[in-house]
Amino acid sequence: MPTFRMRDSSGSIRLKHVIEDTDRHGNVRIYLRRPGHLKVRLRSQPGTEDFLAEYRAAMMGATPRAPTVPLDRRGSKGSFKWLCEQYYVSAEYQRLSGRTKYVRRGILDRICEKSGSKPYALMEPRHVRRMRDEMADRPEAANGFVKALRQVYSFAVEYELAQRNPARDVPYLKAKGDGFHSWTMEEVRQFEEHHPIGSKPRLALALMLYTGQRRSDIVRLGPQHIKDGWITLTQAKNRDRKPVTLSIPVLPELKAVLDATPTGNLAFLVTAFGKPFTSNGFGNWFRKQCDEAGLKHCSAHGLRKAGAALAAENGATERQLMAIFGWTTMKEASRYTRAARQRVLAASGMKLLSRGGDGPGREEARGGET
């Protein structure tokens, strides 16, 4: 076990599982070699904070990488920016999906631009609440901010870089309204009248409405996912952490559209260049198709909501909705079943309010007249 002298003259340090190898040219290379794991090269200058950070990351299971920013722009030890840099090379961050990494790093980098030099250990719940409340007009952004901080400090607590998580008990803000507009059946028919069967927009509508999947799944869906009249796919959301695999039947309405529409080989929906859409690219393209049909307030996500509402109103249970849409908890499904039950109960209950109805107690309400 080699000994490394710290460059800041703070002393020497010996690191477990670190070895030195000399190649045939006489160059000394340093590796982390743990029993049962692949040997990982440590490339930073020994005795520096960068070297220690790389060593800790490798011990956590992440593959060390060359710094992505110049050394003079990296955070000083103990700063919030430094903590984020440790998080970015951790196993916790590396196992996130590419989309989640992109979004989360964007949030944290914006915090670093404003407060990156401040000591992360001094962060208090009141600071988190104040920054959250500054985004009160954008509740989704505010909640994303709180979630990102929770994850960073959860990592810090787990690896003994912090004593507590200041964002853990800061609640999310309640979103205004009900989010994306849920399509009505009249709006679906209006879109269908403008985009007939055989067109790409009509295929996109059918795939979303009759599978209930997110656009991140719709853009990947292709012939290889269908066998014996069933669609089987693993949803893109959380597929690297808690994958959800679904099998749903191909409804006759969807089959009719698929049979009449030219499609791609590996993805049903492709761009003008024959390439599969990205999730964002598809969203922008479908937005234009809605505009052309005179539905400027409708979106791809709203179709998923419409499908859930339609299924619930037709009697689908919460468990059935979870099986169709891939939800892992009752919370989301219960929103639609509650709304559907309210409509059914209101339809039957309003008969009792009608002056021309035959509801019980009508004569008593008139004072017993005959």
UniProtKB/TrEMBL annotation:
Stretches assigned to coiled coil: none
Listed InterPro entries: DNA_brk_join_enz, Integrase-like_cat_sf, Integrase_catalytic, Integrase_recombinase_N, Tyrosine_recombinase_XerCD
Gene Ontology MF terms: DNA binding
Pfam families: Phage_integrase (PF00589)
Tyr recombinase domain span: 178-349
Keywords for this protein: DNA integration, DNA recombination, DNA-binding
Gene3D superfamilies associated with the record: 1.10.150.130, Intergrase catalytic core
Name of this protein: Integrase family protein
Naturally occurring in which organism (per UniProt): Dinoroseobacter shibae (strain DSM 16493 / NCIMB 14021 / DFL 12)
